[in-house]
Amino acid sequence: MTTIRQWVDEAGGLLHKRDLVAAGATDRHLTAAVRWGGVRRPRRGWYSTWHASDPRFVAVSVGGRLSGAAALHQLGAWMWRRPPVTVSVPQGASRLRRRRGATVVWDGPDVVARGTPWSVDPLDALARMVDELAFEDAVAVATWAVREGVVAREDLRDALGARRADAAELAEWVEERCESFLEVVALVRLRRRGHEVEVQGRVGERQRVDVVVDGVIGLELDGRATHESSFEADRSKDLTMLGESLVPVRVSYSLVRDEWGRIAATLDVVLRDHGTCSRRRPARPVGNSSRWRVLGPRGKRPWRLRGRARQG
Fold first, then answer.
1. Containing domain of residue 244, as a range?
2. 216 Cβ contact list (under 8 Å, min separation 6)
3. CA-closest candidate to residue 58, choices 40, 37, 76
4. 156-209: per-residue pLDDT in tens?
5. Element (H or E) spanning 203, and its range?
């Protein structure tokens, strides 16, 4: 016999009472399922198998749905850490249950009409996240959304600019060839320093380098852990890079996160000492010249984009 918990699990972890009743559940069955821990009720009429601390459960218990970075994080978006919970509720909503750490935002009928029972539509979440995340995190989320097919690239600019006109230009920083969060972070940081960056640059016949900096450095981003199975392949790639006048530099997740200043200083030394020897150096430095300037925070905005930088 199918249980209440199974029905809710099959629906993704959240189901309304009317759907359970339609499937054959009675009030007695529902009361027993809650009493014996099979399901939880985040709010009257709703039944869930999520833990009470799950951001989705929190949003529904408040009386709304996840929005912004929190909604995108649940879908697998690239970020440094789990963001605070943002709950979207309809304009004029009442009887909300406030939860510590959760921010409530009021959205119009167009947003309310889209999405799932626990989340706003990804396009609406992208519009909200531009006021929540640091610039490099916002670029990473936008890159992930396009790369994973969560949103179409042609819709990205409109989505990002839905709340702030300048945020639409963030789409110019999205590079779909980035295969990881660290690649996006490195790309943004290096371009903001004026470097020419090539993501997934080819070396040898079949090998690729995570990031090529100014045609001189082959920057490899090794993620959270070094896997023994890739050790020999990595050493082979290093030799290939050296044979093509690229200086191999390998950095870890923790180094990018905690010691970027040290990485940047090291790259500057390598570029100074080896820049004139490279056979791969770009014909002209592009760097950040074709993108809007990234400015610091103002008010509640963590970043701003203004004007196009002067062409080099």
1. 181-277
2. 245, 246, 247, 270, 271, 274, 275, 278, 280, 281
3. 40
4. 999 999 989 999 999 999 999 999 999 999 999 999 999 999 999 888 888 899
5. strand 197-203
